[in-house]
Amino acid sequence: MKLLAVSDTHGDRAILSTILARHPALAGYFYAGDSELPASDDLFTRFAAVRGNMDADSGFPLTRTVPVAAAAVTATVFLTHGHRYGVNFGLGELIAAGSEAHADLVIFGHTHQLGVEQHAGMVLLNPGSISQPRGEFACLGGTYAIVTLTATLVQVEFLTRDGQLVPSLTRKFSRQ
Fold it and tell me: pLDDT of 146-174, one tens digit each?
């Protein structure tokens, strides 16, 4: 099963359309906030989306817990922007929220810095900002992620804004 995670477009609607066209048939599409678009935008019929600190539309929920299933693989995704969980200062509150949601995968944004790690059996993924990247990998010009889940493995691949895989950033985790 393959999922797509993207965050922090800050008004760049065109890149979301481009990403959908590039990856038309995945099991799930997740948007971790700060689109600055209305919740009624038709893009959000495909993307499960949440509200970020820069989203004025209260039509976006602050969090979503989404069960996903494909080809006999199931998982629970906890989606949030991250600003209400203090992700700039650590991941403790986010880990607790993901645990409470019984999540296998936690997707968040806010920091504009890509990252992925595993805690207590959950994979925590920040796909980075597709439009305004920061930190060590800002030179990539924006990133999003493709997550492949099997019964025993979670693989996260980061792609650049133009769809190029960054092999050195690929990470694999055992599902516990």
Answer: 999 999 999 999 999 999 999 999 999 99
Pairing of strands 105-107, 115-119: unpaired
Q: Which long-range contacts (CB under 8 A, 24 or more apart) does 136-143 make?
A: 137/113, 137/169, 140/166, 142/15, 143/114
Report residue 124 CA to chain centroid gap: 9
* Mode of pairing for the β-strands spanning 48-49 and 28-31: parallel
pTM comes to: 0.97
Distances (CA, A) of 86 to 81, 83, 120: 10, 6, 19
Q: To which H or E segment does residue 173 belong?
A: strand 171-174
Name the helix (H) or strand (E) containing 19. helix 13-22
Give the pLDDT of residue 120: 87
Q: What is the mean pLDDT of residues 105-109?
A: 98
User: Which tokens hold the place of 171?
Assistant: 């990470």
